[in-house]
Every structure is written in C-alpha cells, then in structure tokens.
Amino acid sequence: MPIESPGVVSLTKFFKVNEFVEVLKTLQPGLDTAGSVEAKLAAAGSIKELWNDLFTYEPKLEKQDRAAGQVLLDDELLRAARNARPDAHLLVWCAQLLADSRLEVVVREHLTDSDGRIIPAMINRNELHARLVQLAITTQDNAKPTTNVLSYLETCKLLVLLRHAGSVTGVERFLPTAYAVPGLLSLIRERASAWKSWFRPQDDEVLDFALSIGAHHWLNLSRNEFRAAADPAGPATPSAPRAAVPDGLSELRAQLERKGQVVLQGPPGTGKTYLAKAYISWATGGRRDEGHLQRVLDTMPLHERTVEGVADEIVRRGVPAVWEIVQIHPSYEYTDFVRALVAEPVAGGVTFTPKHRVLSFMSALGGELASRGESTELILILDELNRGNIPAIFGELLYALEYRNEPVATPYSVDGNTSIMVPNSLQIIGTMNTADRSIAVIDYALRRRFVFLDVPSTDAPIASNLGYKTERAKRIALQLFAMVGELVSEATIGIQVGPSYFMPNKSAENEDEVIAGIAQSLIYEVLPLLSEYALEGEVEPDALGKFRSALGLVNLTSGIQPEAVIERLLQLDTTTRVSEVAET
C-alpha cells in the first residue's frame, strides 16, 4: 500500500468503536493537540495509543514525536463523527486500514476475494486465527488479534456475526457499506496529502488512486460497485401524478384492483405481453426503466440487495410502481419462483441457506413498503403462464393469492420468517397463448383465483400505428391481416393470428423497408404458424394453398424469394381477396 501512516495499530489491544466515535465528536481541530487527544482517549476508556494512528497533526507528526504542541487537523473522519453521519463507524474501520498495512493486507488478500467481497468462510474464528498465525501477526496461543478483527467487522458495521456457543462461526448478514464510499475518498485524499507532501491527488484522481490501493476491499465492494457508489445519485425527482387510466387499460386496471391477479389470454400475436407492459408504463408514471426491479438490483452492491435495502432505493427513487417479468416454462419450479435452499461456502464445506425467489421477494418488499406507509404498487408479469406446472410452481401460494395479507407457512424460513404474506399492493398479470395445444388445460385452482380477460385479434393496432411511413404500406398490412383472417375465420377464436406479425419494424426508415419487414414476418413466422394449424386440422389445406399461391409461395422446394413476395404484396389493395389474387 503506497500510503504509510505515522503509527501502527496494535491488534492485541481492543477498543470499543462506539465509545471511540463519541470521543471523536468532542475533538476540536485547531485547538486540540496530540497531547490533549491522547488524554481524552485515555479518560474515555478508549486506547490512548490511537492518538498517533488515526489522526493527523500540523506540523507533520513523526512516529516517535509525542510533543504536545502538534495541533490536530480536521478531516473526514472527524467531520463524520461530529455531524453524526451514518458512515462514521465505517470510516473508523477504514482509518485503521490506512494506519496499519498488516491489517490492510489481511483484509485485502485474505478476508476478501479477488472482486473485493468478504469471503464468508473466512469469518470464522478458527479459520481467521490460522491465517493470522501463518502471517506471523499473532501466535497459536494468542487469539486476541483474531477476536479483535472479527469484532471490528461487526462494531464498525460491515456485517452481523453469527455465533455458536460464544464463538464466531460465520456471517448472519452483510450490512450496507456503499454509502461510505464518498467519505472514504475524502479521507484517502486528506491522509495522502498529510502523510506524503508530494502526493496531492485532485478530486478526479482520488477514485482511481483508491481503487489502485484496493480500497474497495475495505468496504466489501467490487470495483464496479465502488466506482458506482463514488458518485451517488441524489434524491430522485418526484413523479408527477399518474394520468387517468387509458381506455385500453381500464378493464385490466379494474379487475386487478378487484381481484389482484388477471390472465390476459388470446391467440399468438395479439399483443398480450405488449398490453401488460403498457399497463406497467402507465402504473410507473412513464418511468418503466426506473421501476424495473432487476434494474434496481443491478445498480446496488451485491450484499445490499436485501428487502430493506431495495425498499430504501425504491423510496429514494419515488416511483409509484415496481415491476418484474418472469418467463414460465415446463421446467420452471417452486424453487425458481417462491423460495429455495441455496448452497453457500462456509468453513469446512457448504451450507444451504433459504433464499427469496421473485414472488417471495416481491411479497416481502410490498410488506416492507406498506409498513413504512408507502403506497407503491408492485406488478409481477408471468409470461406464458399456462406452459408451467401450476401446482408445482405456486404450491401453497395459491391460497395466499386468494387470501391477501394472511401469512401462509412455507417449507423454508427466510430472514427468520417461516411464512409468506402476499400483500394487497402486489398485482399479478399472467399471459396465456390460447393456440398452444402442447400444454394441458389451465389448472382449475388457478382459474378460480384469476380473472381471465380475452385479448382479441383485431386490426385496430395496425390501423392506429404511425410507423408504416406511407398509407400504402399500412393498406398492405391491413389487407394481409384480413387475408390471413379468412383462413381461420371458421376456426375457434383461440387460434387466430394476431396483428403484431404485421406491424412495421421500428428500425425501418422508409416504405420499402417497412414492406420488406412485413414480407419476412409473413415468410418466416406467419406461414410456419399456418402450416401447423393446417396439420392440426384448424385450417383447410386448400385455403392455405390458395393463400400461398396468392403470394407467390407455391414452389417452396426451390426456396422462398422475399423479393417475389414483396412484389406480390405491392399488388394488394383494400378490396383484394385471396381468391382474386390467386386467379391472377
């Protein structure tokens, strides 16, 4: 470490961090001297030897200089304590690491991994003691430095220790530390300037310097987490009042408020997921990205992604709704959706720790926000809901969906809670493809607890879309949609083809690119779907043959030529029917 302090912390002598912070509040920079600092530490019961380890003086204090005339300089550590800032205890920890290269090496090279995060298996009295003996920091029969280091980790507020029979055996939980990064950077800049007169880093240099000496290890953060925390976001701009519910979302909103969970069902391409996301855009007041739970988590340090930590961030952002989406599939299980036992390393092996999955986490988050008086809504989208084994995925939560705010026992206890309570603030939106015949009929227990809303296949989304560039391109899309509709008009509504297949590509810059995109969607998506319907007896083969002929898709063995399809599409108008084009 390139910074050398005037002192060396004695790891055999323990001091109470809370008492030490109280002493810091009484110190007066510019008035107190090295002698008076030592006297105040001794009077308060703190270790008086810390007078020349964790403080800086003017003129520069030599290691063996005990002159009373050295005047105490102000710094970030003193300011944090004086202003009762929450990072004061963490800065005491960092000041120790700045003062003692031995302790810093232990933390950076042994207590934390290459990313900078604390290794849970090392937070164990036996494991850590063996490592300190190996490093010649202590002896086999002197466990005092080991217990002191472990105690500092807890009393300086990096973590909460797990104890068994009075001995430290692991980590109960890690505590937030990212908020201390700005203060640590100020402390590093001040200490570097005080101890090395030739090195006076500017503000834009301190972050890189801190990372170069491994300061992110001191706060249990990765380099990226440390860098992100160096420029903390200020208070979020409060959201403007939400607009009135749009007409297209009014029924969905009404049923969610009444029942709590809704399934949007319809044939492929009708925009079920699009409708669910449109609801999210409205519910979040147009701040969909800011309200996305996964994006919120991605901005937070790994060990701060707790229910309480996320609730803090949601309140700070001020978004009116938080949402997440889950893709359901045949192998999706309860342990993917509700709670699970997760293997974690510990001294001598692994342990299995119960963890939240998305439904449990969002339920706990909703409960935490409600307990703070927040009205934040939570929305969970379950895409392709009927592709999963519903009883296996939901388990006892089917009951909890019906009886909101009532605790339901689960096989796993997370954060000391053996039950889950689905709050009223959690809304669940499922989507279901009614044309998917490879799956079983929706579970009746789920059907009783959800409202099922049909999303019909209409040309309204095409007619109202402004991305076609020209009216001719829109007419082609409308006519092609009508032609496909003729093929399945006699079939059940559940297997129709929705309008999303005929929408313009967002990247299209002109009419030619719009029509080319529609042609490719027709060739590579609509036609295979219609062929499957024909195999299942839902579409008449003769009608499908005429459709192919109308669009120049007869000789498929020679390969489909998109250019030929585009040419036929350009012949369409608003009155053309399949039979008429086929005869030309």
TrEMBL record:
Pfam families: AAA_5 (PF07728). Residues 258-456 form the AAA+ ATPase domain. InterPro entries: AAA+_ATPase (IPR003593), ATPase_dyneun-rel_AAA (IPR011704), Methyl-DNA_Rec/Restrict_Enz (IPR052934), P-loop_NTPase (IPR027417). It comes from the Bacteria. Gene3D superfamilies: P-loop containing nucleotide triphosphate hydrolases. This is AAA family ATPase. It comes from Arthrobacter vasquezii. The lineage of its organism: Bacteria, Bacillati, Actinomycetota, Actinomycetes, Micrococcales.
